Amino acid sequence: MLESNTQGAAPLIGFNDIRIQSIDGWEDFLHEGEAYLKTAHGAHAKERKVFTPEILYNIIAMAIEKFVMAALMKYGALPYNHTMGDLVEAMEETFPGALGEIKDKVLALDRYQEICDVDAFMIRPPKAEEIAGMLEITAQLQTLTYTLIHEKTL
User: Domain count of the chain?
Assistant: First the structure.
């Protein structure tokens, strides 16, 4: 026959008792995102020819990646990969619904480059007139990142 535990059972913890630990370096990602966005804004405003729409797209994509990584790492999460689709998926899993109306706009940025699969490699440079919209999306994501970093409790 089983003996009873006279000391009592250990208390159970719930999901609200679990504390998420930030991943070191999230602040670096945030600052790098700010620097990439500042560079893209400045180059676009000055219409410097060396910053082609393709180069600006890639700088903007780096800013987006850095902002998403900062938010995710602050909350102890990482994406599966670094395509726009993977970054959006990780944001949706970690901060459900937070992307709101910019979700589809960020996902649409993947249509310019498919570089992960060597056999299906494709680059379609954006048009110059598309860059302003990309900068706006990135600025919205920057604002969201600041909000998530400061509001989400660990």
Answer: 1
